[in-house]
């Protein structure tokens, strides 16, 4: 029996053995053709754990004639980098795979980057973090390709599992395993697009199964037991976590209740309750806004309740908040209006505060001309309250309109008032 994990043993040996990622390394892609023609460019591979960054790097190395070296930036030192540089001087050109490249420090960069720039070292960097946020620009600029890998599709994972079951040299092909196509599909679906998890799960299921008459019989209950939580992934401070938050907000904004609940479930399984509560509260005012002002108070109550309750009970008020926001009327008019006002200020559209609006609650205010303010409460208008036609914006911005009402929900009524007041200003 092999000592290495099945996922390690089944890494592709060349680019023709890569499963999935056809948008990057499919036979019609430029990268595939370049490698077959003997040219390997420096590149960054970006994606979640387990979806094939390291495997792709090893496959590229297996399809090239370059000496191959592998380092992890979390514990590689300057000396390790200097050894690679020395090898490059001897061999003329080497291929270096640098995992966790976003953790590369400046000292390592200063040693390595000139040799990447002159072509002596072909660099393949891998990161789980967004390279445009977390990878040093000096490294990005020397990598011609930034390739985002995707989670594998279930059919890709099923092919991967089939390969492992049939491979007698590296996989489980020599073992007499009884497993159905439906069970292979269950393993693939439980792995949530993660190749490493799929093969690790398969290996665990094999070792947890009983042998009968020289055959290892795979049972459904073994798959179900070992599959629990396998699809959950997310570094609380990492790019994937923020992608989940983004997907949650965009699903609520798009009124897709099922998608929003799915992303909420994923976030809560990751356990960062405070970050989820903060995002939900922002959404209540950013995306629901004036169309349903009561939602802000409802979501605040739900998030405060969630913090008191803690997980797993916190999911209950948060589920209520998410469903309510999904199905609520929506408007972003208020904060969009504020952003427009901020932009006007940054663009230099400023002016003096009208004299009648300036502070008049002190001796000498009249001497400075701070007079003429009309108190709106003294001028009742129907059931609205008080209103008087006087100028509030500076003279240079007197005709500016930042607020553009959305005719939705409760804001429809507000929009009617807003438009009527505009008519009053024009004397209509």
TrEMBL record:
It holds the Pfam family AAA. Keywords: ATP-binding, Nucleotide-binding. Gene3D superfamilies: 1.10.8.60, 1.20.272.10, DNA polymerase III clamp loader subunits, C-terminal domain (1.10.3710.10), P-loop containing nucleotide triphosphate hydrolases (3.40.50.300). The keyword ATP-binding applies. SUPFAM superfamilies: P-loop containing nucleoside triphosphate hydrolases, post-AAA+ oligomerization domain-like. GO terms for biological process: DNA synthesis involved in DNA repair; DNA-templated DNA replication. InterPro entries: AAA+_ATPase, AAA_assoc_2, AAA_ATPase_RarA/MGS1/WRNIP1, ATPase_AAA_core, DNA_pol3_clamp-load_cplx_C, MgsA_C, P-loop_NTPase. The keyword ATP-binding applies. GO terms for molecular function: ATP binding; ATP hydrolysis activity; DNA binding; enzyme activator activity; single-stranded DNA helicase activity. Residues 39-151 form the AAA+ ATPase domain. CDD domains: AAA (cd00009), HLD_clamp_RarA (cd18139). Belongs to the AAA ATPase family. RarA/MGS1/WRNIP1 subfamily. This is Replication-associated recombination protein A.
